[in-house]
Amino acid sequence: MDIFRRPEDIPADYGRTVITIGNFDGVHRGHAVVLDELRAAADSRGLRSVVVTFDPHPRIVHQSDSPVELICSLDQRLGRIARSGVDAVLVQPYTLAFADQSAEEFVLDYLVGKLRASAVVVGHDVRFGRGNSGDLEALTALGRRHGFDVVVIDEVGEGTRYSSSAIRRLLEEGDVRSAADQLGYNHTLTGTVVHGEKRGREMGFPTANLDLEAEGLVPADGVYAGWMHFPSRGLRLPTAISVGTNPTFHGSVRTVEGHALDVRFADLDVYGDTMEVSFVERIRGQVAFRGMEPLIAQMHEDVDRARSVLVS
């Protein structure tokens, strides 16, 4: 998949394109339908399929006092879009100047002029141009006037439409299973394994700690059943995952750490490795225990529950 960082990077001989435009945060099941339709529309015309996505997220630009916490990083987003089989992604730098184009300027200068669109794949609720002044009716009329088709996709979802905003809320509540139903995959954080306090090892539950700059939205504090994946080793391990500040030890830093089930820690030297942590189900919330013994007893129970979740 080609990745362009600005429209000017698209080669002059790239030809006309079929495009879709969106934030694609999480690249959820609704997005997957859009990407499938994009590929089909491009294939039927013998043209390249191009996804236009934004960085930073428009809300970060327009509402800097209440920025959105994204489901996935740009790299994670691009990786998932690439797996859809589209030909290219344009990562459009999102600025106030870009947002200030009128609806017609956006179509003429951007879609037709810079992207050479032969067709545009959109949902019924498409909005574009300054103040979101353009809608589906305006886009269709401009398409007839300037020689591009508008392919419209119906809303997709089970009971309600798939939504990045709804998925963020589910993750913030710790409902990773419902989030996975909308995403189409288990929510995943990606980062580097770093040294922690080693308290887990002392209690018989050694963990791999994810660095604080890990990519992806960290779900609500608590204990989860999930998986640790080490891509460079081709290793995927069933895991009990802890998210939180370790209140039993009066911690203040929020961490993500995983205890691999039924694996001797001495056989797992992964410090410095890239690790992907995927969440399957929340087992319980975060609790401050009155001492080590009740904590260790609960950890044994957590591991048993995680194992049963992952085996079922």
From TrEMBL:
One of its GO terms (molecular function) is FMN adenylyltransferase activity. It is an enzyme of class 2 (transferase). It holds the Pfam family Flavokinase. SUPFAM superfamilies: Nucleotidylyl transferase, Riboflavin kinase-like. The keyword ATP-binding applies. InterPro entries: Cyt_trans-like (IPR004821), FAD_synthase (IPR015864), Riboflavin_kinase (IPR023468), Riboflavin_kinase_bac (IPR002606), Riboflavin_kinase_bac/euk (IPR015865), Riboflavin_kinase_dom_sf (IPR023465), Rossmann-like_a/b/a_fold (IPR014729). Its EC number is 2.7.1.26, 2.7.7.2. Pathway: Cofactor biosynthesis; FMN biosynthesis; FMN from riboflavin (ATP route): step 1/1; Cofactor biosynthesis; FAD biosynthesis; FAD from FMN: step 1/1. GO terms for biological process: FAD biosynthetic process; FMN biosynthetic process; riboflavin biosynthetic process. It comes from the Bacteria. Residues 182-311 form the Riboflavin kinase domain. It catalyses: FMN + ATP + H(+) = FAD + diphosphate; riboflavin + ATP = FMN + ADP + H(+). Coiled coil: none annotated. Keywords: ATP-binding, FAD, Flavoprotein, FMN, Kinase, Multifunctional enzyme, Nucleotide-binding, Nucleotidyltransferase, Transferase. The keyword Glycosyltransferase does not apply. Catalyzes the phosphorylation of riboflavin to FMN followed by the adenylation of FMN to FAD. Belongs to the ribF family. PANTHER family: RIBOFLAVIN KINASE (PTHR22749:SF6), RIBOFLAVIN KINASE/FMN ADENYLYLTRANSFERASE (PTHR22749). This is Riboflavin biosynthesis protein. It comes from Brevibacterium yomogidense.
